[in-house]
């Protein structure tokens, strides 16, 4: 249990005093393996560093500074301050063990995401997503039909892919057929954000937060499906209301057919095999899911070798300077390492910074204080509802990582509730999730923060309905102790 470094004054008055005193003059008590630095100047400075770094992340669209840069720097500075204090007390090894624990958590998440991203990029390169888009565009559906079709596809694709990839895929369909109706695009994009986030909430693969919960062992793989109905309610309730604002007319039919590349379906099958391996390693062998994902990635690597040695050629039509047309045939190489290189490295490094920085604040002692405030005083229900609302303003990844680091004593139903709220809470605002931010950039001004905010009360109605649905349908889970 953490023991505070004592100060003769209160929290804020202590800050001004401690900054003026030499370190040796600070009274400190140690018990167990950790120091409580939450009222120490190092704690205040670390908290300020994290807030400033995250403020820089939130204005990424304005500054065009990659979000990984400030949080990676913040993580390094925070842990340097922690290590300095611990070394002053002859406890440098304790800080080292703490940071190694955080790095191990990140390493599992990093390798898992790297394997998943490699498969997603491989399917993209094999035209799997483009073929789906071309099929939808060529069918000539009405605006209202497209509204529901893209919504349901997003809801059922995001549990397998991720909410960002799903939103961008369906967003391309909506822009292709609805470019002449800004009203349709705005509403359909709001629907995509809600559907993609809701679909990702009932699967370990649908969102980073659900993956973190699964890898932590708090919720088992099959238990995520207890959230299927609440997630569906979260999507359907606002969609049913927005339906009446969708134009009744038909968009112009487009003829677009995209051919799958050789081996596309095999890559899809291997992806599902890889997911099954991750689940099996965890459930039957008591091994981390990442080991199954990396084993599955090796299957894709071998299949890429097969495509390479069996040969693949592409014919390109060229026009010479004389105006004559010629066809140039050249080999196409399926290189798995190119697919890995296309992974979103800024996102992966952002996760590193967030996990290490939040882990540092936890080591300082802030997460214990927050846990006591919201979970002990507010109760698990309102605390978890608040987590979802906070996720609409701050990225849900640090919020969920903070909850997992605090590990409050909750029923299984409450752990599922915070998984749900952290996943779908980001739909309340366009900036609340990666899907919303990406679609704002993709929409060419037709989907904006204000256009989403106009429908936030409707989205909030779906948020509340999903919570009530979970409390009703999974009522028996709230009587089961955590880990029971």
Automatic annotation (TrEMBL):
GO terms for molecular function: antiporter activity. Keywords: Antiport, Ion transport, Membrane, Signal, Sodium, Sodium transport, Transmembrane, Transmembrane helix, Transport. It is found in: Membrane. GO terms for cellular component: membrane. Residues 1-27 form the signal peptide. The keyword Transport applies. InterPro entries: Cit_transptr-like_dom, NhaD-like. GO terms for biological process: sodium ion transport. Pfam families: CitMHS. Coiled coil: none annotated. It is a multi-pass membrane protein. The keyword Transferase does not apply. The chain crosses the membrane at residues 37-59, 71-86, 106-123, 163-178, 185-205, 264-284, 290-307, 348-367, 379-403, 415-435, 455-473. Residues 61-423 form the Citrate transporter-like domain. It comes from the Bacteria. Its main location: membrane. Belongs to the NhaD Na(+)/H(+) (TC 2.A.62) antiporter family. This is Sodium/proton antiporter, NhaD family. The lineage of its organism: Bacteria, Pseudomonadati, Pseudomonadota, Gammaproteobacteria, Thiotrichales.
């Amino acid at each position: 249990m953490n023991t505070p470094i004592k100060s003769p004054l209160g929290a804020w008055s202590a800050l001004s005093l401690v900054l003026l005193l030499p370190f040796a003059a600070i009274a400190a008590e140690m018990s167990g393996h950790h120091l409580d630095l939450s009222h120490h100047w190092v704690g205040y400075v670390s908290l300020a560093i994290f807030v400033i770094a995250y403020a820089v992340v939130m204005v990424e669209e304005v500054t065009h500074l990659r979000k990984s840069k400030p949080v990676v720097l913040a993580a390094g500075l925070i842990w340097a301050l922690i290590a300095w204090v611990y070394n002053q007390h002859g406890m440098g090894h304790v800080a080292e063990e703490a940071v190694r624990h955080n790095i191990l958590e990140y390493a599992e998440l990093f390798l898992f995401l790297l394997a998943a991203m490699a498969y997603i990029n491989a399917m993209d390169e094999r035209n799997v997503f483009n073929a789906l888009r071309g099929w939808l565009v060529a069918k000539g559906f009405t605006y209202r039909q497209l509204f529901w079709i893209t919504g349901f596809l997003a809801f059922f694709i995001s549990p397998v892919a991720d909410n960002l990839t799903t939103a961008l895929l369906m967003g391309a369909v909506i822009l292709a057929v609805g470019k002449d109706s800004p009203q349709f695009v705005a509403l359909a994009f709001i629907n995509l954000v809600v559907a993609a986030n809701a679909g990702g909430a009932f699967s370990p693969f649908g969102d980073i937060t659900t993956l973190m919960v699964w890898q932590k062992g708090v919720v088992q793989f099959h238990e995520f499906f207890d959230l299927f109905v609440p997630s569906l309610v979260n999507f359907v309730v606002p969609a049913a209301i927005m339906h009446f604002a969708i134009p009744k007319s038909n968009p112009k039919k487009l003829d677009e057919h995209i051919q799958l590349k050789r081996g596309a379906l095999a890559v899809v099958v291997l992806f599902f095999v890889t997911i099954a391996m991750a689940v099996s390693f965890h459930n039957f062998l008591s091994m981390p899911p990442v080991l199954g994902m990396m084993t599955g990635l090796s299957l894709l690597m071998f299949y890429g070798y097969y495509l390479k040695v069996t040969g693949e050629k592409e014919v390109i039509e060229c026009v010479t300077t004389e105006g004559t047309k010629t066809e140039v045939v050249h080999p196409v190489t399926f290189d798995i390492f190119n697919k890995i290189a296309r992974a979103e490295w800024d996102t992966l490094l952002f996760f590193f910074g967030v996990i290490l920085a939040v882990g540092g604040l936890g080591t300082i002692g802030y997460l214990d204080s927050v846990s006591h405030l919201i979970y002990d005083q507010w109760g698990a229900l309102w605390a978890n509802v608040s987590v979802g609302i906070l996720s609409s303003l701050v990225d849900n990844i640090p919020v969920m990582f903070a909850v997992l680091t605090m590990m409050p004593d909750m029923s299984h139903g409450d752990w599922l509730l915070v998984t749900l709220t952290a996943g779908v809470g980001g739909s309340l605002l366009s900036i609340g999730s990666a899907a919303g931010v990406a679609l704002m950039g993709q929409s060419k001004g037709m989907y904006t923060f204000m256009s989403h905010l106009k429908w936030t009360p409707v989205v909030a109605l779906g948020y509340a309905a999903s919570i009530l649905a979970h409390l009703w349908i999974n009522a028996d889970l709230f009587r089961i102790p955590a880990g029971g």
